[in-house]
Amino acid sequence: MKYIAKFAFTAVLTAASLIASAQIKMTQSQKLKIAEMAVNEYYVDTVNEEKLVEDAIRGMLNELDPHSSYSTPEETKDLNEPLDGNFSGIGIQFNMKNDTLYVLQTIAGGPSERVGIVAGDRIIAANDTAIAGVKMKNSDIMKRLRGPKGTKVEVTVLRRNQPEPIRFRITRDDIPLFSVDAAYMIDSKTGYIRLSRFAKTSYDEVMDAATKLKKQGMKQLIFDISDNGGGYLEIATQIANEFLDKDQLIVYTEGRRSPRHEERANGHGKFRDIDLVVVVNQYSASASEILSGAIQDWDRGVVVGRRTFGKGLVQRPFPFPDGSMIRLTISRYYTPSGRCIQKPYGKNHEEYSMDIYNRYTSGELYSADSIHFSDSLKVTTLRNQRTIYGGGGIMPDIFVPIDTTEYSKYYRDIVAKGVLNQYIIDYVDKNRTAIKATYGNFNDYNAKFQISDEMLENLKANALNDSIGFNQKDFDTSKSLICDIMKALIARDIFDNADYYKVMNHRNKLVAEALAVINDKQRYKTIISSQKKQ
Prior knowledge:
The chain is an alpha+beta fold and 534 residues long. The protein has helices at 2-21, 28-42, 49-62, 73-84, 111-115, 138-145, 202-215, 233-241, 287-297, 349-353, 355-362, 409-416, 419-438, 442-448, 453-465, 472-494, 497-504, 509-518, 521-529, and strands at residues 69-71, 86-89, 92-97, 100-106, 122-126, 129-130, 152-158, 166-171, 173-176, 180-185, 190-195, 220-224, 249-254, 261-264, 275-280, 302-305, 313-319, 325-334, 378-380, 387-389, 398-399.
């Protein structure tokens, strides 16, 4: 076989030589294939052919736009998992505490809960392989705990007040990944939904959340997609459909080899008549911009926040048999008014990746007056002919500057080094039972629980142990913010993930502005009907 392969390759080289001598035109794909074969067969040292080909693919894609990319089989799986809506595993949320896997929560009805694992347990081994005290990466731990549905894994657990380790045999099962981070009534008539990504299950999650809120008296909705980096285009159009009237254009895509394709509302949306505010920021991208762009273009609601990321390119996956994949940009998407939301690429990919940082340094995130649009990018909304702009992201109807008044170097360091989060894990571990006994539910906790001076002193001591020097001025600047984050993290670990946002949203300037405008009917109507940009 090796002789045959060498003979075939020699034949290819001979043919290439004859083509060259006869000056017959060779296709570029033939040229690339011969180059790869020549390097692999004749290069002076042994080469890794797999890496050689992967690097060649990455090099080609790097000459295109910033969003065309190649991923290995493992990278492809990691990319798809958050959008697929589930994976197979044991069903826990965990963090690392002193080099030990600490169970924050078990997924309700999941495999771990069914066998009796509880929050606060420490998993020290999986299938007799130690995962504690060996400085194992989180990704390696997950590989040992995750696996095909129906397979089993034996874990060894240390439990507080139990003298001996406990062994559990867990049968892996499908574990849902939720994209609705929070859904609750923010006041007696206003529903609030926060969506973290547009995954396969997101439409069903949003509809389920909105239906429940409507039963609780929701008359108007704040839809928060700040920090939402996007996901599936079709999920964004399904959600937008629920707010728009029949035949209203949601989005269209078009490319060199991709003819114009339109998505329009079918007229059966369940929330076409409620007042709507969409919250965005500089990290809202792609599918988030499809949704917010459609709402703004049709004067359907008010968009609040900061200019969105500006990703208006559509990628099509080209999978390989080994599980690797190319994601190739095949078209651009446009809002109903014809705006292309894709921001300029710049001179290179590095310049493109620096765009958000440049918004900080230019002052754009602090003042709307720092944002300047060319008249050539001016368009009007489709119902009330308000002036809006294309050319890179969705500019909100109401600009909310980023608030850094409570930020300090001390706050940055205790968060970035994980000191604050680690302290909360320790605190909850020691006080979980007492907190649950004292506060029967989240509402009781939220009303009565306060961060004590003792807790703050312990946090400072932990920071000093991690070489973070104490600074009184910085601490005073950030104290209120630190206390709220601590309270929110405890609520998340003791009660529910959504309770984190219930604690923090009272200080969220984006949400506060959204609530203010949706409760001021005259202002709300003026914004979406005025021809002057608000």
